[in-house]
Amino acid sequence: MAEETNAPEEAKDMPEVSTPKVDLADFTSEGTGGTEPQGDGRKEKEREREAILDVPVKITAVVGDVKMPVRDLVRLGRGAVVPLNRKLGASIDIYANERLIARGEITIIEDDNIAVTMTEIMSSSAST
């Protein structure tokens, strides 16, 4: 038990490490106004950019949500209707790795599949 109470104290004594913010503009060659690195530096930036572009991101489109007690949840069965907190035709939220990045609307595409058309892209400062 004594070890458990000391763990938070040890964490307080550790120095804080700041994580630098990464902007994808740092990895693009467009719009640098001639200040881009030459030779090996340019190749290294391109490799870094390519590495970032291959990172998988989970995209989630949320039509709506609802909170309910477990009692009501376990009573749901086939054909149950669960009202959500959105009106018909309202925009849906689009998340990348659980971070709101855009809003959009549902679209039907080939073979009766659904997709999302982005109608509003969130600014990076608004979603932090």
Report on the architecture of this protein.
Helices cover 25% and strands 23% of the residues. The chain has 128 residues and is of the alpha+beta class. A hairpin with a 3-residue loop joins β3 and β4. The chain is elongated and about 65 Å long. The N terminus is likely disordered.
Please outline the helices and strands:
Blueprint: H1 2-13, H2 40-53, E1 59-62, H3 70-75, E2 92-96, E3 99-109, E4 113-121
Antiparallel strand pairs: 1-2, 2-3, 3-4
Describe this structure in a few short sentences:
This protein has about 130 residues and is an alpha+beta fold. It contains three helices and four strands.
pLDDT < 50 runs, ≥5 residues = 1-20, 29-34
The termini sit apart by 38 Å
Number of beta-strand segments: 4
The chain-level mean pLDDT equals 77
Widest β-sheet, arrangement of strands: 1-2-3-4
Count of separate DSSP helical elements: 3
What is the string of SSEs from the N terminus onward?
A: HHEHEEE
Shape: elongated
What integer value in Å does the Rg equal? 23 Å
Secondary-structure-derived class: alpha+beta
